[in-house]
Structure formats: C-alpha cells, structure tokens
C-alpha cells in the first residue's frame, strides 16, 4: 500500500505540474481575448465619439443657417412692411390728386359756363384805338431792337478782337482812350 500511495502522490504531483502550464496558457488566452475585446470596445467608443462630434457640428451648422434665414426673413418682413406703407401712401396721394384734378376740372367747367368772354377782353377796358395799339408796342419794339443790335455788335467786335490776338475789346478801348 505504501507503494500505491507513493505512486498516487507522484501522479498527483505530475498532474499539478502539468496543470500549471495549461492553466497559465488558458489564463493567457483569456487575457488576450479580454484585451482584444477591450480594444474593439475602445475602437467602437472612438467611432461613436467621432459620430457624436460630426452630429454636433452638423447641428451647429444647421442652427447657424436657421439664424441666418431668420435674419433674412426679418429683413424681408421689414422691407415688405415698408413697401406696403409706401404703396398706401402712393395710393392716398393718387386719390388726393384725382380729387384735386376733379375739383379743378369742375371749377374750369363752371367758369366756362358762366363767363363766355375771351380773357383778352377782360383786361382792356374801354375802346381800343389805333394809337394804343401802334405807339406803345412800336416804340418798345424799336428800343428793344436797338439795344439787342448794340449788344450783338459789341459781341461781334469782341470776338474779332480776340481772333486777331489783340486781346479784349474793352481793354483796347481803355488803352486807346488813355493813350
């Protein structure tokens, strides 16, 4: 029995010695699997963080675009209100003008109906004689003709003096009178 007992102890020692590298290998394999799983989870977390950042950027861009569109809408609303106000003002001015023109037209028609005489007849009072027609306008016309002729002659002489290179006519006349 002592030999059998001794044999059992040797066998159990071998089993423990053989089991130790097997258990170490098993633990190493489990550790490798755990590390691989951990690396895959870290990759997944990194991908999720990247996706989250991308979505946050898109949300920020969308909010910026919404703000820009709101500002444009506000500006368009203000322009529309101003246009409506100006349109109403123009419409009121048009109505006022129509009413004024209508009133003036009625007044003109009433004046035509009540006074059929020519306007030229209203100004003159009394009998129109030949002296009143010919003397006043004739003398005024003659004086106006003389004045216009003198000015035209003076301008012609001034242009000729400048063309000859002698300078202005007024300075030439002043030089001739003083010299």
Briefly summarize what is shown.
The protein is mainly alpha-helical and 179 residues long. The protein has helices at 2-114, 119-123, 130-163, 169-178.
Can you give a write-up of this model?
With 179 residues, this protein is mainly α. It has a domain of 38 residues. 91% of the residues lie in helices and 0% in strands. The protein is built from four helices and no strands. The longest helix is centred in the N-terminal third of the chain and has 113 residues.
Can you write the helix and strand succession as a string?
HHHH
Distance between the termini: 174 Å
Overall 3D shape? elongated
Average predicted local confidence, pLDDT:
80
Give the number of DSSP strands.
0
Secondary-structure class:
mainly alpha
Helix content: over 70%
Based on CA atoms alone, the radius of gyration comes out at 59 Å
Beta content comes to under 5%
Number of DSSP helical runs = 4
Question: Which segments are poorly predicted (pLDDT under 50) over 5 or more consecutive residues?
Answer: none
Largest sheet: none
């Amino acid at each position: 029995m002592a030999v059998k007992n001794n044999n059992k102890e040797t066998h159990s020692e071998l089993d423990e010695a053989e089991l130790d590298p097997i258990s170490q290998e098993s633990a190493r394999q489990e550790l490798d699997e755990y590390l691989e799983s951990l690396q895959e989870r870290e990759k997944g977390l990194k991908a999720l963080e990247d996706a989250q950042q991308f979505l946050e950027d898109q949300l920020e861009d969308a909010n910026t675009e919404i703000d820009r569109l709101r500002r444009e809408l506000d500006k368009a609303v203000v322009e529309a209100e101003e246009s409506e106000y100006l349109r109403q003002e123009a419409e009121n001015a048009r109505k006022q003008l129509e009413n004024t023109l209508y009133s003036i037209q009625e007044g003109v028609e009433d004046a035509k109906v009540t006074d059929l005489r020519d306007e030229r007849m209203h100004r003159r009072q009394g009998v129109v004689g030949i002296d009143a027609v010919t003397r006043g306008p004739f003398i005024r016309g003659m004086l106006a003709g003389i004045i216009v002729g003198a000015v035209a002659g003076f301008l012609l002489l001034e242009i000729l003096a400048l063309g000859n290179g002698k300078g202005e006519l007024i300075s030439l006349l002043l030089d001739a009178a003083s010299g």
